[in-house]
Structure formats: structure tokens, C-alpha cells
Design goal:
The complex is a heterodimer of chains A (about 180) and B (about 375). By secondary structure, chain A is α/β, with parallel strands linked by helices. Chain A has a domain at about 5-115 and about 145-160: Pyruvate-ferredoxin oxidoreductase, PFOR, domain III (Pyruvate-ferredoxin Oxidoreductase, domain 3, 3-Layer(aba) Sandwich). Chain A has helices at about 15-30, 80-85, 115-125, 130-140, 145-155, 165-180; strands spanning about 5-15, 35-40, 50-60, 70-75, 90-95, 110-115. In chain A, strand 2 and strand 3 form a beta hairpin. In chain A, helix 1 (about 15-30) packs across helix 5 and helix 3 packs across helix 6 (about 165-180). Chain B is of the alpha/beta class and about 375 residues long. Chain B folds into 2 domains: about 10-190, Rossmann fold, CATH 3.40.50; about 270-380, Rossmann fold (3-Layer(aba) Sandwich), CATH 3.40.50.920. Chain B has 13 helices and 15 strands. Chain B has helices at about 15-25, 40-50, 60-75, 85-100, 130-135, 150-165, 175-180, 245-260, 265-270, 290-300, 320-325, 340-350, 370-380; strands at about 10-15, 25-30, 55-60, 80-85, 105-115, 120-125, 140-145, 170-175, 180-185, 270-275, 280-285, 305-310, 315, 330-335, 355-360. In chain B, strands 2, 3, 4, 5, 6, 7, 8 and 13 form an 8-stranded mixed beta sheet that branches. Chain B has a 5-stranded mixed beta sheet with strand order 10-12-11-14-15, sandwiched between helices. The longest helix of chain B has 18 residues, at about 150-165. Classes of the chains: A alpha/beta (about 180), B alpha/beta (about 375). The interface of A and B includes residues 21, 35, 37, 42 and 43 of A.
């Protein structure tokens, strides 16, 4: 039984991280029958600023819905990496966009650096699916939710007609994560 | 309802759960002006209502929105508006009108920090006294609280039931965390959900008095357009609804507006207790903070500290009896809340100095971390 697994997705407003958080929570809660809670925090502006979505997954009840000690942090911007990495726990996982995060925070955690935005623009062909590429990478590296569950949750959330694009984005991310691990 | 696990499971944020609860309660009219962090309530209903014959209106401002739901309710429709701090301030005059004219309606306020436009996207619980006393004049009012998406769903239904039963505006307070937390909601079979509908007049139109004196102090307002004619006003009025300056009648009316809620307090008030039976430290917490408090209670129990939690699901009328009972059993009470001690003051009053009441207030837009509560409990012990 898993007590509490805490994920924070961070970047700037408009990168789709809140949607990514919702997808992760739904993958765990609906398709794997566990408990999952997703919360968000963003500034008053519609785009830009540091934004974060958090997902807590547990096989038990989740009282406090926010992250306390992060198991995994995804950072898609330098600002969000600096602002939000302080809560990473010892031995936790930090996944960063290698094109956008240059200064790495110091701490006892594992860093996985991948060109996330570039994979979206170059390999998938659209920057708008950066969040889904990130989900693919995260799913592979974290290993707490199955690939199948996350895919189902993506399909249930994305607009009609974009299913193929999003599946491609997820697969490209998953593959990149796989290459990094092997 | 939360014990019924036979229902459908859906992932929803608190705001969406409010909208779903409103639909089940029979609400078919929403007027509002979008405002963070409550916007998703409006957004969701704007999609759902047109499909089922409901009416959604985005008004020019919050004042007009409050006026619109009062008007809609007078035609017999269950009506809702949703807002946040600054919008809640604007609605106050018309909330008073609904109190005076005894028009049932539901106002959801997803609290942000203030004063003024304050912190649009950050959590706070700074409107708990405004919900009670924001509008001028003596009056009773019902204010509910929710701490999860499940409770947002259930409390919205209850808000409509209480509004219709007691012919009063009912306010449901969420905070940004509850409104924006996506989590599981178990939707029970509709046949298992209790729905209260407005009382209809038993007499013929010619004998009808909308504000007739009754034992239960609750008026019977016939929906406009059903042949019953009466006047609705914000002025003090007699049994016909027309204004009066007769001191005797005015005194009776204002007394009744207050008594209507007080005499039914036992039916309205609801609290949830966690590990309070043998507790030495009692926590009083509501909304998202009660989740931090529950975590803290469990942590304390692991450390051998006997902590317990009293969660008011109804903030007003205030659960005086329940707080006094807790005060007589514990050695100290802690009130964590996202304001400078607005409900702690009520707890102090209700506990009649039986025990010390410690405030743990946060007003910087951060949630209260369970570890802060644990630290305070350790300090008190």
C-alpha cells in the first residue's frame, strides 16, 4: 500500500500544467481505483508567472490536499524550478526541460534533464502538446501510474480530433524517458 | 450521503461539484458575474442549463446578479449565484432584501483574501463574519461550509433544501483550495437524495396572506403568476407584504426574521467530530483548514497526544452547544483559520472561558500546513 506520493508540475501559466495534473489524478483515481487529489496555484495573470499543479496519490485517505514533501517535481521554466524545488525530498526526482532550465538547484535528488519543449515542437510538431510530452516522460520515470491508465485519462480529457496528436506526444515523451533510463 | 458507496464515482473540483449539486437540487436559474476563484461554478452551469431548460444569465455586475436570482426565485424557480470576496461585498444589499422579503436563494462564495480585490487566486477564509453580518439590519441567516468536493456537492443540495424550507437566503462558503481541488465525488442515485421543495399556500387566492403569522415563523410565498397576488418590498411590512409604520407589526416582523432561524437551529446545525471523545486538545476548523487539522490530529495521535477535531458544517447559526460541550472536556482549544481569528472569537464566546482558546491565523495566501497545527498543539501540551 502506498501512503502518499506527491507530484508537482511547475512552469509558467499557459503551459497546460493544470490540465496535466488533472489527467494524472484521473488516471490514478478513475483508472486505477486509488485516491488522488489535484490542486493548483497560479498568479492573477492569464499567462506567464510561475504556475504549479500538484497531485497527491495514495491508497489511503488524503486529508491535506497539497504537497508537503515532494517525491517528484517537473519544472518547465527556470523561475518555477527555483521557486518550487525547495520542497523536494531526499532521493526525490527532478525532471527539467534542458532547454529552459539552466541553473540546477542543489540538493540530494535525482535530476532528469530532457529537451521537453523541443520534443513537442520538433518530434510531435506542436508546442501546445508540451504538457502531454511531459506526462509521457513523467509516467515512465516515476513508475507510479501505468502507461495505459494515463493514456486513457488523456483521451478522456483532450478535445475531439486531437486524440492522435496527443497520443503521439505521450509516446514521444515516454520513449525519451525510456532512453534516459536505459 | 457520503457513506453511500453504491453511487457513480467522478473526479471533480469543488466548484464543479457545487454546480452538479445545484442541478440535482432542482436549481434551474443562475445569474452571476464571473470572478476567480468561483468562475467554474458559472462556467459549468452555462454549459448544462441550456440542455435541460434552465436559464443562465451573465449579468452586468454582481449587484444585478443578486437582484436577478431574487426575482427568479419569486416565480418559484430555485436560483443560484456564485461569487468571491469583492462580488460578495456588492451583493450584500440585495442579500438583505432577500432576508427581509424572505426569498429563498443560494449564494456560493468561494473565498479569496481581502480586503478589496486582495488575492484573486489565493485561499482565505476572511468572509466568515461578513457572511453573517455583511448586510445591515438584524436578521437570521444560514451559512454552510464545505471542505472537499464531496461536501461541496452535498452542501449545495443542503443549501437549496434549507433555503426552500426556511424561506431565506443561504450562503455556502468554500475557499479557493476547496473550490479548485479536483478529487473523487461519489454521486448517489437520485432517488436517495432528499430534495425539499417550497411550501405552497393551502388557502384560496382571496384568503391568502404571504406573511401570515405561523407557529413555525416561516411564510408561504406563492410563485408569481399562479394567481396569488401580494406585494414584495424591502421595507418593513405587514402580513400582506405592503409597507407599514406600525411599531407593533415592525417589532414582530424583525423578531420573527431572527427567531425563524434560532428556533430551528437544532435542525440546521451540523458538526462532524473526529476523535473528540477522549481528546485533551480540541481543534475547531472548517473548510480546507479542517483537512489540515485532521492530518494534524492523526499525527498527534501517533505521537501519543490526544487531539480531536470539531468541524462545523454549518457556520451560522453558530454551533454554540457543540463548542461548549467540547470546551468542558478538553484542556485547550485551537482554532486554525485563514483569517485573523474571526471564528476563534465565536469559539471563545461559546466556550464561556472554560478553557484557553488559541488562535492560529494565516493571511498570506498560503494554506495552513498540518505541521504548523502539530507544532502549536505540542506547544500547548
Amino acid at each position: 500500500m502506498m501512503e502518499r506520493y506527491e507530484i508537482r508540475l511547475s512552469g509558467s501559466g499557459g503551459q497546460g500544467l493544470i490540465l496535466a495534473g488533472k489527467i494524472l489524478a484521473e488516471a490514478a483515481a478513475i483508472y486505477e481505483g486509488r485516491n488522488a487529489v489535484q490542486t493548483q496555484s497560479y498568479g492573477p495573470e492569464a499567462r506567464g508567472g510561475a504556475s504549479k499543479a500538484e497531485v497527491v496519490i495514495s491508497d489511503g485517505e488524503i486529508d491535506y490536499p497539497k504537497a508537503l514533501e515532494l517525491d517528484l517535481l517537473l519544472s518547465l521554466t527556470q523561475e518555477s524550478c527555483r521557486k518550487y524545488s525547495g520542497d523536494l525530498k531526499k532521493g526525490g526526482i527532478l525532471i527539467i526541460d534542458s532547454g529552459l532550465v539552466k541553473d540546477l538547484p542543489k540538493g540530494e535528488f535525482k535530476v532528469y534533464s530532457l529537451p521537453i519543449t523541443e520534443i513537442a515542437t520538433e518530434k510531435v510538431g506542436k508546442a501546445v502538446v508540451t504538457n502531454i510530452v511531459a506526462l509521457g516522460i513523467l509516467t515512465r520515470i516515476a513508475g507510479v501510474i501505468s502507461e495505459e491508465s494515463v493514456k486513457k485519462a488523456i483521451l478522456a480529457r483532450v478535445p475531439k480530433g486531437t486524440e492522435e496528436l496527443n497520443m503521439k506526444a505521450f509516446d514521444e515523451g515516454f520513449r525519451a524517458g525510456n532512453e534516459l533510463l536505459s | 450521503m457520503s457513506n453511500d458507496h453504491s453511487g457513480r464515482i467522478r473526479m471533480m473540483q469543488g466548484n464543479e461539484a457545487c454546480a452538479e449539486g445545484a442541478l440535482v437540487a432542482g436549481c434551474r436559474f443562475f445569474a452571476g458575474y464571473p470572478i476567480t476563484p468561483s468562475t467554474e461554478v458559472a462556467e459549468h452551469l452555462s454549459v448544462k442549463f441550456p440542455k435541460i431548460g434552465g436559464r443562465f444569465i451573465q449579468m452586468e455586475d454582481e449587484i444585478a446578479a443578486m437582484g436577478a436570482i431574487i426575482g427568479a426565485s419569486l416565480t418559484g424557480m430555485k436560483s443560484l449565484t456564485a461569487t468571491s470576496g469583492p462580488g460578495f461585498s456588492l451583493k450584500q444589499e440585495n442579500i438583505g432584501y432577500a432576508c427581509m422579503a424572505e426569498v429563498p436563494c443560494v449564494i456560493i462564495n468561494v473565498m479569496r483574501g481581502g480586503p478589496s480585490t486582495g488575492m484573486p487566486t489565493l485561499p482565505a477564509q476572511m468572509d466568515v463574519q461578513q457572511a453573517r453580518w455583511g448586510t445591515h439590519g438584524d436578521h437570521g441567516i444560514i451559512v454552510l461550509s464545505a471542505s472537499s468536493a464531496q461536501e461541496s456537492y452535498e452542501q449545495t443540495i443542503r443549501a437549496f433544501n434549507l433555503a426552500e424550507k426556511y424561506m431565506t437566503p443561504v450562503i455556502l462558503l468554500l475557499d479557493e483550495i476547496v473550490g479548485h481541488t479536483t478529487e473523487k465525488v461519489i454521486i448517489p442515485d437520485e432517488s436517495k437524495i432528499e430534495i425539499v421543495n417550497r411550501r405552497k399556500p393551502a388557502e384560496k387566492p382571496k384568503d391568502y396572506l404571504p406573511y401570515r403569522e405561523t407557529e413555525d415563523c416561516i411564510p408561504t410565498l406563492a410563485p408569481f403568476g399562479t394567481g396569488y397576488r401580494y406585494n414584495v418590498t424591502g421595507l418593513c411590512h405587514n402580513e400582506t407584504g405592503f409597507p407599514t409604520n406600525d411599531n407593533k407589526i415592525i417589532g414582530k416582523l424583525v423578531h420573527r426574521l431572527v427567531k425563524k432561524i434560532v428556533m430551528h437551529a437544532d435542525d440546521i446545525i451540523e458538526v462532524k467530530k473526529t476523535m473528540l471523545d477522549d481528546a485533551e486538545i480540541g481543534i475547531f476548523a472548517y473548510g480546507s483548514v479542517s483537512r489540515s487539522a485532521r492530518s494534524a490530529v492523526l499525527k498527534c495521535r501517533e505521537m501519543g497526544i490526544k487531539a480531536g477535531l470539531l468541524e462545523p458544517k454549518v457556520l451560522w447559526p453558530f454551533p454554540k452547544k457543540e463548542v461548549l460541550a467540547m470546551a468542558r472536556k478538553v484542556k485547550a482549544i485551537i482554532v486554525p483559520e485563514l483569517n485573523m481569528g474571526q471564528m476563534a472569537r465565536e469559539v471563545e464566546l461559546a466556550s464561556r472561558c472554560a478553557v484557553p482558546v488559541h488562535k492560529l491565523g494565516r493571511v498570506d495566501g498560503n494554506p495552513i500546513d498540518p505541521r504548523e497545527i502539530v507544532d502549536m498543539i505540542k506547544g500547548v501540551v
